[in-house]
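Appendix B. One record, verbatim.
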Amino acid sequence: MIICIKNKDVSKHDNHSHHHHHGGGKRIGITILLNLFITVSQVIGGFMSGSLSLLTDAAHNFSDVIALVISYIANKLSGKNILQIKLLVLNVLRL
């Protein structure tokens, strides 16, 4: 429900609140970098020691990095309107 008071729109919320967390993109970025560091370390260690277990864990961690990158992109797109998102997706699919 929108209430107009002195030419200003004020949103009225009925018994619920919204929590907006700022800086989430920065935290996700740090997490991506840390996870990449762990993945690269596991790949190097896996090749040096001949450990297939380390190499498969590195592959698993890399899939986590991909999921975090998708989350980071979604976080950045959350402030854009739907037309901008559709155009961005169509542009990416052209590649």
